[in-house]
Specification:
- This protein is of the alpha+beta class.
- The chain is built from nine helices and four strands.
- The longest helix is centred in the middle third of the chain and has 30 residues, at about 105-135.
- The relative contact order is 0.15.
């Protein structure tokens, strides 16, 4: 009897290098990696100490911002680096076929809410947080400007989530992108007015992979020092 030809076993996936600090943008990627079950190795980027300006990191992330990844098993089996959290989510979604649908209508819906977060929720919530918690002057106008906009954006999400569990149909990278920013913004904006958003926040937060992704590196967070404030704020071109 003829023996079946030997099929070489598939090589195990090599771990993705995750350049990360525990912030809402960082959580997007740690949550995806946990949800997809992808092996990864943590590469902390201490943004208070200026790790983001290291020449070796700038080769990966020319905008000197984390998160970024290096996938040793990129297209054609060759390594690839990806920076910008939205682009990383799309890349990982295509790579794994998870949380990023292939059908065009479904994909458009996911991309709408992904870019809504990248262009709206993240920047506005970030500015609100800055003027409320980090600005050394008391500036009423920007405080009101940005907290009002976060309130408006929460209203947009609340209407979207009325009668649906997730932002774009099935659970997707859009939900992963938004969740950490909602968690962060609830430090100054209550969800009492937004019951559908509150239920979504709880629903996403109850997922075991989300808990693991959110917990990643939390021990690295420390109260900001005067030197770290200088490093984080008021940056100009180098």
């Amino acid at each position: 009897m003829k023996k079946a030809p030997h099929k070489p076993s598939k090589k195990p996936a090599r771990p993705i290098a995750l350049y990360y600090w525990p912030t809402p943008n960082g959580y997007k990627i740690s949550i995806f990696l946990e949800e997809a079950g992808l092996p990864y190795v943590l590469k902390p980027v201490d943004i208070g100490k200026g790790d983001q300006f290291a020449p070796e990191f700038l080769k990966i992330s020319p905008n000197n911002r984390m998160p970024a990844i290096v996938d040793p098993d990129g297209p054609g089996g060759k390594p690839i680096s990806v920076f910008e959290s939205g682009a990383i989510l799309q890349y990982l979604g295509r790579k794994t076929g998870k949380f990023y649908p292939q059908a065009e209508r479904a994909r458009v819906a996911v991309e709408e809410w992904l870019f809504w977060q990248v262009g709206g929720l993240g920047p506005m919530a970030g500015q609100a947080n800055h003027f409320l918690n980090y600005a050394q002057e008391d500036l009423p106008y920007p405080k009101k400007r940005y907290t009002d906009e976060v309130h408006r954006l929460f209203g947009v999400m609340n209407r979207r989530l009325a009668g649906r569990k997730y932002l774009a149909g099935a659970y997707s990278i859009a939900d992963m992108a938004c969740w950490g920013w909602v968690v962060s913004a609830t430090r100054y904006q209550s969800l009492d007015e937004f019951p559908h958003l509150a239920a979504w926040k709880t629903r996403i937060g109850a997922r075991p992979a989300v808990k693991r992704g959110y917990a990643l590196g939390q021990e690295l967070r420390k109260p900001i020092t005067a030197d770290e404030r200088k490093m984080l704020f008021g940056q100009r071109a180098r």
